[in-house]
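User: Mind token order:
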Amino acid sequence: MNPNPESAAHDRAWTDRVAASWDHFWFHPADPIVLGLLRICCGLVALYVHLNYTRHLQEYFGENAWIGLQTINVVRTETPVLANPWGWDEPSLAALPDDRQAQKQILDYYNKYGVDPRQTVAMGHSAWSIWFHLTDPWWMEVVHLAVLVILGLFTLGICTRITAALAWLAAVSYIQRSPAVTYGMDTLMIATLFYLMIGPSGAALSLDRLLARYRARRRARALGRPLLAQAAPPLASANFTLRLVQIHLCIIYLFSGLSKMQGGMWWNGTAAWVAMANAEIAPLQYRFVVDALRYLTQHRLLWEIVMTGGTLTTLVIEIGFPFLIWNRSMRWPMLAGALFLHMSIGLCMGLLTFAAAILTMAIAFIPPEAVHGTLRKLRQSLPFARRAADPAAGAEKAATNLEPQTHEAKVAIALAEEKHTDSMTNGQIPPHVPAAPGGGRILPEETRPRAIIKNGNERI
């Protein structure tokens, strides 16, 4: 039976469309300016976090810290790793060997971790931190200062390819050494730093880009040529990195919202109250916060609107974000909802750094046009920020300023372009060129001389 040629062609066309869509989604060149803004915000968050470590460096990461060096070494070398069970039976202590020394080792490990060491697939976990090996207080301060300098250089976009990798490695060192002082914010920060490390995060809004433009300007001036390209070119790697951040953020929101629905408080509308009245995380040390909560409890209808409404709003934003954010008409409402949600969490629960970290990841969904427009308004109000703010702006003025200043150079360029025009038209105006109102014909842009020099006078 011969296959239907039309059906086979339709199948091929469908697969081609799917492959083209997949390629366009991941690898279509994108403006790196969004990635540059993401780098600045992530760098500021990381710099703030590590600056706060400075006052308590020994308490967090020293040899006798909250989790001492000896304790963390035991955790990372002896913690049992079990395989996924194939049945319903709980693991138990198997028959002991006859050797008394082996019996003692097995029983000691079992009494300490509740697991037979013979049933583990591994002990400990692979982790690296410079604080596992560096314990001298003076040298710890020196290295910590170097880390702050690296984070500052990364934020400014100096040697970004190198400082991005060093920033990620440094941040991992702090988290691996003292897991007691880390929480969800650190996870978001590490993930964002990793994506910025593999992407061209210094291609825009960076001192690297500014220095590259300066060097190109000097070369162009030395050669007597105008500088034509000023804006950072679109990059497929920039789009790929932004897609990774976007999908990661969608997964975070989706699982965060779905996991909340496992708790009864999210069904009866009291979850927001439990969070806002929790003395461990809520800023109840401020009198106005306590007075506001007390006022809500005295007005039941207002309490239901704020607490139940806040609970439902959280679920709608977190579960709806991964699906609605891809719709262009819903992108800004979802970003506004995420901003409202996390600013509320930051103010009511004291988690401002967490809010900053997750909103930094949300920057990946901002269109490049919006970033350019905001920077354009910033340049209008702050003229001195023009060059650093938007490399794409001012290209025409820069090219004009780079015109050759000597009369001889101008004459040479004019003669070369006039000769080029004659070679394209054979000394005659092509018949397809439209006629000018006063007679003759209008030359197309690619064949029109840029400058004509006659008798030492320049006429554009």
About this structure: The two ends are 72 Å apart (CA to CA). Residues 388-406, 420-460 have pLDDT under 50 and may be disordered.
